[in-house]
């Protein structure tokens, strides 16, 4: 029995719940949100889908005690409008740091012992707070982080070369925010190094395009939801399948002393390993600068 809770049922959380429901990822869903009317409405809408859905999924709402035997929690609380308006994911810092403390305590009080996958922004900071407040081991609490930024990079590079984005490997690293960057040393297209295919001007332009698209989508829709929800569901699948999936998450990286976007191996226990990348000096400096930004912001909460 695969039981998943979604905390926060705005556009992102609702899309996560719908994707889990329609793709047969979960056998049981728990929906939680401060807005009880919204929570109940999403519960009712999903239940009305059962007779037409390809999978039977049990859906509950509003009961935090349900977390005691839940396998995976996906947190998606926040105010995305603040991020879209400012173009800065740290715009949600004041509200979501408080939300993370409140939600973390409720999760701990429930007796939850599973894996938490965080989406809420600023992703790396919120993930760190959730780990601290729940008291769970660091490997059991991680975030979508630069999994989404990497997907955007893959799309842009794929379009540049007329390739399926899945033919593009490599990582975006750092904060899921303004200081994230494409680690071009890791990027390959059909096993050809990106450094052999693109000059510096082209790489700079692709960096810009991958970052700008998030805010183009956000300003047009008022939010983003599909891409990040897909990332969260992919990671939940990796946990349930014990897939040993290798990809970027917001995980705790010992060498920089904080949660940050970095490749990890995800299995049934969450982040089971954080392999060390051999980065060139300029990319290592960018990673450390991004980590310092995150740690400085976390220090404001002490």
UniProtKB/TrEMBL annotation:
Oxidoreductase listed as a keyword: yes
Transmembrane segments: none
The entry's keywords: Oxidoreductase
Residues in Lactate/malate dehydrogenase C-terminal domain copies: 146-300
Domain named Lactate/malate dehydrogenase N-terminal: residues: 3-143
Entry annotated with the keyword Oxidoreductase: yes
Pfam families the record matches: Ldh_1_C, Ldh_1_N
Superkingdom, natural source: Bacteria
InterPro entries attached to this UniProt entry: L-lactate/malate_DH, Lactate/malate_DH_C, Lactate/malate_DH_N, Lactate_DH/Glyco_Ohase_4_C, NAD(P)-bd_dom_sf
Gene3D superfamilies linked to this entry: Lactate dehydrogenase/glycoside hydrolase, family 4, C-terminal, NAD(P)-binding Rossmann-like Domain
PANTHER family reported in the protein's UniProt record: L-2-HYDROXYCARBOXYLATE DEHYDROGENASE (NAD(P)(+)) (PTHR43128), L-LACTATE DEHYDROGENASE (PTHR43128:SF31)
Family: Belongs to the LDH/MDH superfamily. LDH family.
Protein name: L-lactate dehydrogenase
């Amino acid at each position: 029995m695969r039981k998943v809770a979604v905390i926060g049922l705005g556009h992102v959380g609702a899309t996560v719940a719908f994707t889990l429901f329609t793709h047969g990822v979960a056998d049981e869903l728990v929906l939680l949100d401060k807005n009880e009317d919204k929570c109940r409405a999403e519960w009712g809408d999903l239940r009305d889908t059962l007779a037409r859905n390809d999978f039977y999924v049990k859906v509950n709402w509003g009961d935090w005690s349900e977390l005691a035997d839940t396998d995976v929690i996906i947190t998606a609380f926040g105010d995305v409008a603040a991020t879209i308006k400012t173009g800065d994911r740290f715009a949600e810092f004041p509200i979501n740091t408080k939300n993370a403390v409140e939600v973390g305590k409720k999760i701990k009080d429930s007796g939850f012992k599973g894996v938490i996958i965080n989406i809420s922004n600023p992703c790396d900071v919120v993930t760190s707070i959730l780990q601290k407040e729940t008291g769970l081991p660091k490997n059991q609490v991680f975030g979508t982080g630069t999994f989404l930024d990497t997907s955007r990079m893959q799309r842009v590079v794929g379009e540049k070369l007329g390739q399926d984005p899945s033919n593009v490997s490599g990582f975006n690293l750092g904060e899921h925010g303004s200081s994230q960057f494409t680690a071009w040393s890791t990027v390959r297209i059909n096993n050809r190094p990106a450094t052999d295919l693109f000059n510096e001007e082209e790489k700079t332009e692709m960096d810009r395009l991958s970052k700008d698209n998030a805010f183009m989508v956000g300003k047009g829709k008022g939010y983003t939801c599909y891409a990040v929800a897909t990332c969260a569901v992919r990671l939940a699948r990796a946990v349930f399948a014990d897939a040993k999936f290798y990809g970027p998450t917001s995980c705790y990286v010992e060498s920089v002393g904080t949660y940050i976007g970095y490749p990890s191996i995800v299995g049934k226990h969450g982040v089971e390993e954080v392999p060390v990348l051999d980065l060139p000096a300029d990319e290592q400096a960018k990673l450390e600068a991004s980590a310092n930004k995150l740690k400085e912001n976390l220090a404001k909460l002490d």
